[in-house]
Every structure is written in structure tokens, then in C-alpha cells.
Amino acid sequence: MNNMERPKRAPVPRATDTTLTREYYVSPEIFEREIEKVFFKQWTFAGHVSQIPNVGDYFLHTFAGESLIIVRESAEIVRAHHNVCRHRGSQLTKAESGNVKLFVCPYHQWSYALDGGLKRAPMMPDVECIDYDKLALKSASAEVWAGMIFINLSPKPEQTLVEALGEPPAGLLKLEPENIREIRRDQLVVRGNWKTLLENYLECYHCAGSHPELGIAFDIQSSFDQTATWGGACFLGGEPLRKGFVTVSMTGDLVSKPLGRHAEDANLQLEVAEGLGLLPVLTRVLFHVDHAIIHVMNPLSVNEVQWTTIWYVRKDAVEGVDYEADRVTEVWRATNLEDKELCERNYKGVLSRTFVPGPLNPRAEGAVRPVLNHYLEMME
Hints:
By secondary structure, the chain is α+β, with helices and mostly antiparallel strands. It folds into 2 domains: 239 residues, Alpha-Beta Complex (Naphthalene 1,2-dioxygenase Alpha Subunit, Chain A, domain 1), CATH 3.90.380.10; 109 residues, 3-layer Sandwich (Rieske Iron-sulfur Protein). 22% of the residues lie in helices and 24% in strands. The protein contains 9 helices and 16 strands. The strands form 3 sheets. A 7-stranded antiparallel β-sheet has the order 1-10-9-4-3-2-5, with no helix packed on it. A 6-stranded antiparallel β-sheet has the order 11-16-15-14-13-12, with helices on one face. A hairpin with a 5-residue loop joins strand 3 and strand 4. The termini are far apart. The model has no long low-confidence stretch (mean pLDDT 95).
């Protein structure tokens, strides 16, 4: 072949897919349907077992407008109760976390056990006056998977989380995800419909031009092939690193002690990328060899969505010795702010009555339409 000739590129498939029509992003009526059809039927990340190590430990978690009490009932059981007394509806607690033997409503002192059962209603004895068995706290479903706590607002989900995800893969177990602790939590409110933020995360077509910090270690080209396999309610896998890189950081080098059994390796393993995703309201779990990042989406209204990012390191890592929090978090803190600007600008355009969705890039935006199709199936 002549040295001046270049190999021919593979043919580009015809771009035929689009995002959804405008009303799906701006209609309050559609958002109300989503609460019932989507938000109350899917699994989402709520917290980590390190937040409730002891029986009676609890923390509050909010999703889709619902306040939930995540509590450790026993060494084996974690429960999620709606923070609503069965008497007149008062919230049982405003404290973000704590340890209790009973949940006592501050209004009329109705008392509930850790399993949610009603134990006492003053001046209203069981059987004689009311049936305690019928007045347990309303509960959501809760499952612990690899040390992470997930909830489903439905008390009887169509699928358990283990049925959806399967057992944790060996690569994730080597990282010992149960033995990590939180070092920082950021919450951003993005002024846009939650599906605008979802679509932004499902593709990296925009990454090269918008995320210089992420692009240092993240393999943008490989992500196109990876995201093309996404769809349905969940997927396994982390985000690919460039060849020869150790972790997502501003240099690609370690920013904390290696996690789990990786600390025992004679040679540090490169390009470790484990994790999972839950859809369509996105939870994204990312594990690298030295730290973890978990992103969680919480729709607030038709035109606002909360984006929470939590960073974790090995539970025995010492700040100032083994890691600096600013170094661990700087890539995704910058990326999140960039995405907030991109999504809010995008949503302002979608609000225009002239908006008609254009064709999606068949390679770089391959996950967008399959995930939207899953959303539409849930919406029936």
C-alpha cells in the first residue's frame, strides 16, 4: 500500500434514533405519572453499611419526595421505613442519623419497633381499641449488595436487586466494597428535567470538548463501546481507564491506599474499573483500585433534579497520611460542575416551543435510545 494512503474508515451507520419529544421534559402531568410508574418501581442507592454499623443505627434518605428511615434491625437485616406515623402522619424524626431502640412519634407518642411494628399507642390498647398488627409503618424494600444499601419504594418489587444484578463479580469483591468509608458528599441541584441529566450521563460524545479533567485518565473512545451495551433496568461494570493508568485522578496515579486485597498485590493492578448502574433514574457506582465514587439522581420536580456524588476510601485510610480529600475528589467535582452547566443550557433550549429532537450519534450516543425505550416501557 502506498505510504500516503490511509486505511478506509468503517462505514458509519445511518443516524435514525432521537431523544424524546418535548412534552416528556416539560409536562408536569408526565412527571406525576413518572412518580407512580418509574420512581416507585426501580432500585436506587440509599447509603453504605458503614453508616449503620450497630443495631438501632439509622439515617434518613430522601428519594422522589419521600423521606425514608434506613435502620439496622439486626446484624443481618436492614430496613427502610417511610418517615410517616400511622396515626396522623407526623414525621417520626428530623434527625439525619442516630441510634434508637424505638421510633417514638413526637406528636402523640405512638411507638414503633425497629422492624416497623406498632408497639404502643397511648390510651389506645391493642385489640380493645385498635389492631396494632394493621398499623405497622409503611415500608419500602431494602437490600444490601456488596456493602451498599439500595431501596425500592415498592414494598414488593417486580425483581429483587440480586435477581436484577446477580451476585457481585469477583473483581468487585476483591476491592472489599463493604470496607470503605465516606469522605465527602456533594449535592447539586440541576435546573432541568431529570431525563436531560440522564441522557448527558449516558453518552460521552460531549466529553472531549467539555471534560478536560475527566479525560486525563478516562478512556473516552472505549466508553463508546461500553455504553452501547447499556439498557434495561441495570448493568455491571465501571468506567474504562486509559492504558497504563492506575485511577481517575489529575495525574492517573494513586490518590489513596489501595482498596481491599489490592493492598496485598506485589504489583499494583492497572486500569481497575468495577461498578454498576441502575436505570432509568440513574445510580452510578464506580470503583477504582484506590477509591470509589457513587452518583445518585433524585428528581425533585419536572424542572429540577438533585445530583449527589459521594466519595469513599479504604476504611482505615488516614487523611493527611494516606490521602488528601481534595485530590480524591477534584476530577469529579470539576466534571459535575461542567455537566450542570451543560444540562441547564440544554434544558433551556428544550423549553423552546421550536425544539424537535435531532439524530443521535450511532456510536457515541448508543446508550441513549435503549435506556429511553426502557423508560417508555415502564411508563406503558
